[in-house]
Design goal:
The protein has helices spanning 22-33, 45-59, 73-87, 110-138, 159-179, 200-203, 206-213, 228-235, and strands spanning 13-17, 37-42, 64-67, 92-95, 141-146, 184-191, 246-249. With 256 residues, it is α/β, with parallel strands linked by helices. Helix 2 links the parallel strand 2 and strand 3 (64-67).
Length: 256
Amino acid sequence: MSVLDRFRLDGRVALITGGTKGLGRSMADGFVEAGAAVVVVSRHHEESTKVAEALTAEGGRRCAGYAADVTDPAQVAGLVQRVLDDFGQVDILVNNAGINLRGPIETLSLEQFDAVQAVNVRGPWLMCRELAPHFKKRRYGRVLNIGSMLSVVGMADRTPYATSKGALLQMTRVLALEWAPYGVTVNAMIPGPFATEMNLPILNDPERYRSFVDRIPLGRWGELEEIQGLALFLASDASSFVTGAAMTVDGGYTVW
């Protein structure tokens, strides 16, 4: 097999939570181009279906969109069963769904803190738990947990988000150890500033935007398609000897 062939995803099925917009949608586009059938998941059925139809048209392979709340164990179980019924397998899981609430700790409620942990930590944990028997039985799987530069560095007014992304990195490391005997790899991607919907409060504030750019060695924010290369590597057989890693896509932000 040539090195380029190892990056192909022909015959693979990828499930992406939060796959209808931002980094999730960009990764979905990249996987489809590489030959995968992609299942996108969000809380909104109409949105998921519309994106899946566009992905099918792009790649020529049937893709699907489902609605599910990743914080609800029953909905996660139903989602995974439906995907297995419809596609027969899941080869790649991308835990991308996430939310962010900002503010000094004394201005945030416990309910706000818990809401961020529910989506950003509980959701990936439930998805991994539900797919564990399938991955182990097939002795194959690629899990990509989408962390953040706040998985590894601190930033004021981000206690809910930074806490959740630090936890997700540790979950990645533990599952990499648990699943290594079964040939399943688990890695974390550590994006820096990208122009996503989640970052609109910063993008729309010139002073805060400038403060970010000034700390990025490459001098700019990331373009959405710049997430695709690393995602494809970690989702493909090209990364067969990589597990438990945390790989940055941040323009050098975390080098400081």
